[in-house]
Amino acid sequence: MSRSNSITLAAAVVAGWIALEFALRRGLVIAAAAVGVDPGLVDALVLAIGFPAIAAVLSWYALERGQDRERWGWDWTPRALGAGVLAALVGFVLVAGAAQVDSALFGLDESATTRGDGLSAAIALLLLVGNGVVVPIAEEQVWRGIVQTNLVDGWGVPAGIAVTALLFAGKHVIVDLSVIRITTLLTLGFLFGVVRHRWGTASSTVTHVLINTVSTVGLVAAAFG
């Protein structure tokens, strides 16, 4: 695949992800609330079911446009898994620091960013599975496996990782309609990108799953505490 085609494919996948996630997490959730369905339940279902559906559609699109699935980097070796675990440990430290920066920038304390109040047991379980495990797998497949791979091909390693991290943080800002986690999101985007480039998408997925799971457990614990 040529450099220009790689960049075009990456741009199309980024636009597709943002449009589809926004439609599901904003449009569908608002529609559900309008007819009396718990929006928290719908959002949790979107995370658990909608995200892998988005990843499947965009992966199919990439394959149709000539992407080689071997380039996605899913090598489940002991080395990759171990690197993912070690990177997660580093990530917890980095996220703690980034959260302090976000707090200082936006004048927020930890409770101000907690969205878990009033969770039912069913929604809590869906969040643990969806946000903790399913979302990281779907996001790593698309954002690191497809987008970063193509941007690195087109622009080289530093720019490919950096632009992917910026786009990854940007899509969260767009969907969440908020910038209050921007430092944390950028930190995670760069961390996942470096881990993916060095050890593969399986490795960055392990890192992402561990960080998301711990974060989600904290949210659920706070809701039931």
From TrEMBL:
This is CPBP family intramembrane metalloprotease. Residues 124-214 form the CAAX prenyl protease 2/Lysostaphin resistance protein A-like domain. It comes from the Archaea. InterPro entries: Rce1/LyrA-like_dom. One of its GO terms (molecular function) is endopeptidase activity. The chain crosses the membrane at residues 41-61, 81-99, 119-138, 150-168, 174-194, 206-224. Keywords: Hydrolase, Membrane, Metalloprotease, Protease, Transmembrane, Transmembrane helix. GO terms for biological process: CAAX-box protein maturation; proteolysis. It holds the Pfam family Rce1-like.
